[in-house]
Design a protein that fits this description.
alpha/beta, TIM Barrel, 28% helix, 22% strand
């Protein structure tokens, strides 16, 4: 009987992991060998470059308005964010008066659910029309509207394009209409975020040139120089400098070689007790519980003044006219000493 239980347990575990596919990321990480584009990096001890751009965007999260420091060289603020709730309604709209800024402020609207995106984009659903009406109404207090829907199913590509078209037609011409899109280094088949197809419907496209490596990937920079250069090169060719905003990260990421948080079957628990020589098992209201320690190796990739200045100057040299930072409050303050707005 015990043998049968072990066989059934192994079969269950195999089935569980066989059904869990690798999460599909919207980031276009090329797997083929690509010739590296030359990059000029400042040498240690050399002065860092000063970069100037026609537009410099920064994102501010509602409730953290203090991250917007006075006199920063910013032309635009993306106010994050209004959200689409489970009923397709626009909620949590930031109040423009809470942000003290003399430049342009854009309302950012997000939807991070694949099923909800499908639900609200469906042209045959009344909820799509209601959401468009909510977005147009909320945008009245702002200088512009930005759509940041990051989990659109590929089957809804055409409905997403028509959604953007309807919003552009409904917005007054003086309102700046933008969209935030994931990074691409080449054209992808059946791409719901196809730059060339979206370009006619918007005034600006913010390319989120970050999360090259993410929380569940192998360790690496969220925006390596070579990858960013390929993203910028493709973006300039497909979007053009007039509508392109290259996004830059202020954040980094950490990875550990061991993650203890998980569900455990009994045999795995016994193995942990044996491997870590657990001798003290206590009970809390009848439930057994124990503790153990383990060394974990952590690797951290982050952004500092050097990496940010090098990336900004690389973009400037390539012909990028506008950049945007995600997000204010996460940066080293020193970076602002190397950045200015073009008159």
């Amino acid at each position: 009987m015990k043998c049968l239980f072990k066989i059934l347990t192994l079969f269950w575990l195999f089935s569980l992991f066989a059904c869990k596919g690798t999460p599909k990321t919207e980031i276009d990480n090329d797997i083929e060998v690509i010739e590296e584009l030359p990059i000029s990096l400042p040498q240690p001890g050399e002065p860092l470059p000063n970069s100037a751009f026609g537009e410099i965007w920064g994102y501010v999260v509602a409730g953290r308005e203090s991250a917007l420091v006075k006199d920063l060289p910013l032309s635009d603020i993306g106010y994050f964010s209004a959200e689409v709730d489970s009923y397709g309604k626009l909620t949590d709209i930031p109040k423009r008066r809470n942000l003290k800024f003399t430049g342009r402020v854009h309302l950012v609207a997000v939807c991070n659910s694949r099923s909800l995106s499908h639900f609200v984009l469906n042209p045959e659903s009344k909820h799509r029309g209601e959401l468009i009406a909510d977005l147009l109404s909320a945008a009245k207090d702002f200088d512009g509207l930005q759509i940041d829907f990051e989990n659109i199913p590929p089957r809804d590509t055409d409905t997403f394009f028509s959604f953007l078209k309807d919003l552009r037609q409904g917005l007054p011409q003086e309102k700046v209409f933008t969209v935030a899109l994931p990074a691409r280094t080449k054209k992808i088949k059946d791409d719901q975020y196809d730059y060339e197809n979206i370009k006619p419907y918007v005034d600006r496209i913010l390319v989120m040139a970050y999360d090259e490596h993410w929380s569940n990937s192998k360790p690496g920079s969220v925006a390596s120089m070579q990858w960013c250069k390929r993203v910028a090169d493709y973006s300039l060719k497909t979007i053009g400098k007039e509508k392109l905003i290259m996004g830059l990260p202020f954040y980094g990421r950490a990875w550990g070689d061991y993650t203890p948080s998980r569900a455990l079957i009994y045999t795995t628990t016994e193995k942990i007790i044996d491997e870590h020589k657990v001798t003290e098992i206590r009970r809390e209201n009848g439930i057994p519980v124990f503790e153990y320690s383990r060394n974990v190796s952590i690797v951290v990739y982050y952004e500092d003044t050097y990496s940010l200045c090098t990336r900004m100057e690389m973009y400037k040299t390539m012909g990028v006219a506008s950049i945007g930072f995600w997000r204010l409050g996460q940066e080293t303050p020193e970076v602002w000493n190397y950045l200015k707005l073009e008159k």
